[in-house]
Amino acid sequence: MIRRAGDLIWNAAGQFLYCLLLVVLVGGSLMAQTLPPLNADDQLGSQSFQSYHGGDIDHIGLANGTLTLDSPFLSYSQRGQLHLDFHLYYNNQPQHIGQLCIPNPPPNTPPCFLRWGFSSAPPPLPVEKGDVFVGWAQQIALVGANSKVVFNAGLSDQFQKDFTRWSVQTADGASHILGNLGTQSFTGTSPEFFASGTGPWESLDATGWRFNGTLTTDSGESSSQRSASGAVSADGIVAGVQDTNGNIITTVRDLSGIAPTSFTDTLNRQIPGPPMASSASNTDTSACPGPPQVLLPVDHAVLWSVPGPNGGTSNYVFCYVKVNINIPSGPGNASGQTLTSTKLQSIVLPDGSNWGFQYNDPGDGSTNNNAPVNYGTLTQITLPTGGTISYTYVTTGAGSSCQNSGRFVASRTINANDGTGPHTWTYAYSTTSTGDTSSPLSVATTVTDPLNNQTVHTFKSLYAQDNCPAYETQTAFYQGSQSSGTLMKTVNTTYSFTPGSNRGGALNVVPTQITTTLSNGEINTVSKSYDSGFSYTNYGGGSGFKGLYGKELSESASDYGSSSAGATLRTTNTGYLAFSNSSYLNANLINLVSSQQVTDGSGTQVAKTTYGYDESPLQGSGITTQFGTAPNSVRGNLTSVNRWLNTTSSNITAQTKWFDTGEVYQQIDALGNTTRHSYDSAYAGAYSTQTCNALSQCVSGTYDLNTGLLTSFTNANATTQAKQPVAEVLERWWVVGRRRATER
What we know:
26-stranded antiparallel sheet; 11-stranded mixed sheet; mainly beta; disordered C terminus
């Protein structure tokens, strides 16, 4: 399936150098494309409009065979629009071949070598590579890929200019290349000058990320990192820690500055950061599962104590093992790798159940240097309920050229231990040259399901300059196999893009037409159009380039036709407030829909809804806990919804009024009936403690502060239906709720 840019994030960074490229220009001033080629580091995370297969816990990149875990593990409800979530993460980035380049190599020595698991400048996110970990889901980093250009080489007036292509990176490792909406100048003195962009900066992958602030290239570095405090999501959330109403989460970081060591959330709860593989042991291993329940003996354990039910704490035990990595040389002249790696094997939950993880690839008895071969790739997940998800891999170079050779997922097996047995999907990859200079690379991934039905996903590069990344242009669904089964449906996708200016390949990629052909030859199409975007200056100072915010303005769907698409059945037109009000655009509140209209095939309106924001004064809450000044003059609080009636051509309107914290104060329905909400400072204004309807009939409740669960509820007849102590009920809800969150 193709993931939408607004839902999943595209990693087009290329910001992590495998070799530093130096361009020499004699007497010239032309900026050359000197950024490093894309590689396995650039395939981290979920990338917009790429295709994945899997479930709610894991997904497999069909264009590049990568395995990624991204599943909710633990969440704390917050006031306003903020979230504080911790997810299970995994990526198999180290199980790929990287290019090591040596400046000024000795005579007869190639300047670059291939090596398994090599990355000269690993990206800051995800915080761990190649093993399962629990990480802060809202974490953001700002990174840059540096390039240098020498002018007038060998002359007395030789000088050098250093440039950086900046990207916002999210917790799963996905990167969003930025374009400078401001101007570029240079700092420094001869003979070396450093590019400096004023910003603001907007992402060039249709995901709507923004960065506010001036960014200047570092001296003498192949990659740059900066504070992400100026990063703003498409919902206006600043750096994951401040919402549009001024609610704040405070983080404390260690000397590395990568992963926070503690959080103070909007309810003033103190939450320590989760352990990492490098964390020191602070508890014994008695709670950890051992062989034969797990594969390896436990090396050490780390206790994570977080706010839990009934004002107490919940304890999670992270059990770590030492995994012997033994990767043979090849393919080609790629050198192998031998090392011992610390990896997470189990997480014991507060109720004693546990997650389990194995790293035993390939596990077939093969040896290298008289020791078992082990690439260290994740091969099995055991869920707390006892089910398993298992993986096998194949070493291949098929797939996107920027992925490099490595361990691609060959099979995924689910066993719920419910008596139905294992269910396996297999993946086969191939790459061919198309002979088309505008799209020279074609990748085909064939997925075979447990019933032996096959789906063939075909990917092509959109821009010939670097052949990468590849986007899915055709999906063919078969009943049975491709060779002997029946073709049931074919889906073809056409994309719009702009040629790369901040990297070698296509930017601003969005699907514009999706054509479905059924087995009987009937065809329908869905056509899309997008916002007009913005102009930006690229990393080399070139101006006038075009970017997209990625908001879909219209979508038209046709009927099925016998040999071509039938007549248009429906068109949906969507308006966004940011494109008509610059205050919302400057606040990067680009997801706010201002109107949505549906017309039939003749263009006649059949439905329309308009939305209003920030139309009424805010009600003071009196809350000061983790609450400050709103970052912008607008907040994006939805204050009215107007629905068109086709019988009278008039609107019915519902209104909402807000506290200054971004919590609902009053809801007024279309008949003018008002529902009023009250909040208590004992819960930092986050939980509604009383709700009264238009007849002044009120219900009220008390809460467990840590979990947000009701501890008592009083109905409109003043009858208390549940009251403290309910510690046992809370504990059960807490554990079951956390487990269900991970298994959705």
